[in-house]
Amino acid sequence: MSGVAINQVGYLPSGPKRATLVTDATEALPWQLADGTGRVVATGTTEPRGTDVSSGQNVHTIDFGTHQQAGTGFTLIADGATSRPFAIGADLYGPLCADALKFFYCQRSGIEIREDLRPGYGRPAGHLGDRDVPCGAGAGDYRLDVRGGWYDAGDQGKYVVNGGITVWQLLHAFEHRRGLDELTLDLPESGNGVPDLLNEVRWELDFLLRMQAVPSGLVHHKMHDREWTGLPTLPHLDPQPRELRPVSTAATLNLSAVAAQAARIYRKYDADYADRLLAAARTAYTAAETNPIRYAPVEDTVGGGPYNDDDVRDEFYWAAAELFLTTGEQQYADAVLASPLHTVDVFGPYAFDWAATAAAARLDLALTPSELPGLAGVRASVIAGADKYLAIQQAHPYAVAYAPPGNRWDWGSNSMVLNNLVVLAVAYDLTGETRYRDGVLEGLDYILGRNALNLSYVTGYGTDYAKNQHSRWYAHQLDPTLPHPPKGTLAGGPNSGLQDEVAQARLTGQVGQFCYVDDIHSWSTNELTINWNAPLAWIAAFAAELG
User: Fold this and answer.
1) Which residues are designated catalytic?
2) This model's pTM is above 0.70
3) What are the residues facing 32 on neighbouring strands?
4) Residue 244 to residue 221: CA distance in whole angstroms
5) If you placed Cys at 502, which of 42, 357, 493, 521 could pair as Cys (CB 3.0 to 4.6 Å)?
6) Domains and CATH numbers, the chain
7) Contact at 8 Å (CB) between 492 and 414?
C-alpha cells in the first residue's frame, strides 16, 4: 500500500509545504514535484518516520518547502504513488473563510433562507412557533419567546452552551483577525452599515438573550423537540412540539461571557444594543453567583443532546474575564485573579470546547488590552500552551497538533485540532515567531487532506471531501432532491468512541484516524455543528491574513 497525503487545497508560497507518504519502505525514497503540465519542478528524498501511532501506518515525510512558485495542478510522486492535485498560492484561504462563515446563515431558525442568497439551500422559515414555547418538566410554569438563533447541529435543537462558545470564537476572530470587518457574507442584513459577521452573530446573540429567564436572571440550558425526529426532516416540516429545558449555571455564565464580550465589540455600531448586552451579562453573572449551582442533567437526552457539565469553575472564570475586559471594573478583576484556574495550565489535550472554557478566558486576557495585574504571566501561559501543541505536532508524522491520551480520539476531534491551532496563532500574535505561524498552516493541512484517509474534512474543498455529514436537511444521501451540506462545512472527524450503529458496524477495531466514515447516519464521527465551523473560520481567517 502506498499513497501521498497532501493538503488538497494547497499551500502558501512562503509557508511550510510537507506531505506524508505511506509506504512499506524503511529507507529514504526519492520524490518529485510536478507542476500542472507534468514538468518536474523539484526533487528530493523522503524522511522516514516509522510507524504512526494514530494510523498504524509506516510513513515518511516529504518536505518541498523550497519550491515557492505559485500555480495549480501540482502533484507529488513517490514510491509509485501520485498525490491528489493541489495549488500553491497566496489567495487560497479567503474563500474558505467566507464559506465557513456563510454556513451559519443556512443554520438560522425562524427565518426564510433565501434561495437568491444561497442557491440550492432556500427553504421556508423553520419553527416559527418558537415565539411561544412552554417549559418542560421541571423547567418552570411559564412560556418564553425563544425564536431565532442557529440550529445547533444535525438536529434542530438550540443549546446555549454550544451557542455560547461559537459566538465567543466568531467574535474573538472579529476582534483579533484582520479583514473580517469588511467581509461580505450575502445576508439579508448586508449593507446595513454593520459588518456582516456581526450581523450573523447577532442572530444567535438575540436568541441567547431570549433564553434568560426574567426576573431570576438565570438562563435556560436549551430548547428542542419533545422527541427525536427522523432523517430527513426539514425545519419547517418538523411535527414535534418544542420545549424549554431547565436553567443551568453553565448556560447563565455562557450568556454572561459572550454578552459582555459582544458589548465591547458592538458598541461601535449600536450603542443601545451594547448597553442591553452588558446589562444582561451583569444580571446573569450576579444570578450565577447568588443562586445555588444548577447542572444540566446528563440523562436529559430525549429530543436533544444533554450538553451536561458538572464543573462550572471555568465558566465563572470566563465570564469574569469578559466582564473585566469590557468594563475594567475591580470586582471582575478580583474574580479573575481569585479564580483557581487563573494560574494553572488550562491547555490540556485540547484547548477548549463548550464544556471547557478556561482557555477561552486566557486567550482573551492575553490579547485584549487591559490593566490586569500579572498580564505578562497570562501571556507566558498561552505561549507555554502553544509550545506544548507545537511539540506534539512536530512529533506527529501527519503534523497533527493533537495527541489524545491512549490514542482515543474525541468526538469532534477535527474541532479540537483546530482549537489547538488557535492557541498557536495567538502565540504568533504575541511573539511574532514564525514557528507558531508555520505550525498553524501545517496543522490545517491535516483538515484538508493530509491525513490517513486522504480526505478533506471540509465539504467542497479538495478533490475528495466529506459531503454526507449527519443532518436532517442537508440529506442528499437519503433524498436526492435535498442538498449536501453547504460548501465550507466541517465534518466532526475521527472518534474512537464509535457511539452510532454505522460506526460500530464499519469501524470496530480501527485505530485513531481511521475511526471515521462519511455517512449521514454516523452522527458520532460525521456530524456538523456550529461550534466546529467556528474554529474552521477562525483558522481560515488567520491563513487568509498571512496570504
Assistant:
1) 518, 527
2) yes
3) 43, 77
4) 8
5) 521
6) 3-88 (2.60.40.10), 94-121+130-453+527-546 (1.50.10.10)
7) yes
